[in-house]
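explain this chain.
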Amino acid sequence: MAVEREADPGVQGGHGAPGGGGGMSARGARGLRGARDARGGRDISGAPRAGGPGPLAPRRFPGARTRAARPWPARSWWRTPGARWTAVLTAVLALALAGLIAPTGHGGHGGSGTQPIRVGGGTVRQVSAPLPAQASAGCDLSSSLAPSSSDSGPAVQRIRKRGKLIAGIDTNSYLWGFRDPATGQLEGFDIDIVHAIAKAILGDPNAVEYLAIPTADRISALQSGEVDVVVRTMSITCERKRQVAFSVPYFDAGQELVVPDSSPIRDYGDDLRGKRVCTATGSTGEALLKQNAHGATEVPVANQLDCLVLMELGTVDATLTDNALGAGQAAQDPTVRLTGGVLTHEPYGVAMNKDATDLVRRVDQVLQDYRGQQWTASYDHWLRPRMGATSGPPQVTFTG
């Protein structure tokens, strides 16, 4: 049976940008999440909150704070006026007490590139903006080590001896990694891939220990050995490839703006001047905004779902995130929409420790086997209704 825990926010180290520009503190993130869950003994999806009984009870681990995962807002409750305003006022108070909003202004313009791209089911668009995931000399984002079905390597052997795969995931991204309130189980496109890896290595798709980690802590969790893999809508970039190892890409995504339906913002350009734009700390969206903010003020948070809450509160004007995650936000809340088209090309990969080359090869083999009917079935179930038709998984190459 799969178990779940959450990284201790007390040891995450802050979420501000390196070298300054503060972000959301662990205390502030807890306050915001608590406001989302403030409904007596239950969270806003109807699933039991931490400390209460549930179909997937979290297991307690030393040094880890345990509680039930935070699912997406249930529309029926969120549309109840009294409950909605109670949550809004509670969240505003939490934000004020925690000193949550620590915006960072960016008005400069970095280098730019113009490139026609098609991402997921997104539109084709000529863009003139920084491309954080663009390949540079000596960095091929589509390649990884040659696949292998061998389980004899040291990293794979550690997983087999433990009897569980430890996977770093997001529990707040609808369609990708979230808790189904009807069953209490973690589900989504990324979770399907975790199950496939566990089944291949351990013979049991549910032999998984899930660790919910903030965006900014994905790399450190791999480097410290706290997790075996990170399957968390993690874009492959040249900078990240210098710090951790990646599988071949399993999905093509790209940055896009999410705004309220009533917003005048139509494009990633001058429409952003004087606006407050939310991004997750450590994300490629944050990197894009820092390079070319178009006069906007950045509001960094620990997880992208917090941006949706801040938009609902009217605290920020827009969110810059992956179009794949933005599609999930729009599915959660019908009062927000994607706008402006896809800005970058960013393939998602399974991330692993730099030294775990045998595990990289094993995961590449899993993804090779997964590319056929399994990938298509998962896409059709989770993403096709929101992102449209797709030509299939990304093209990949193998080296070494």
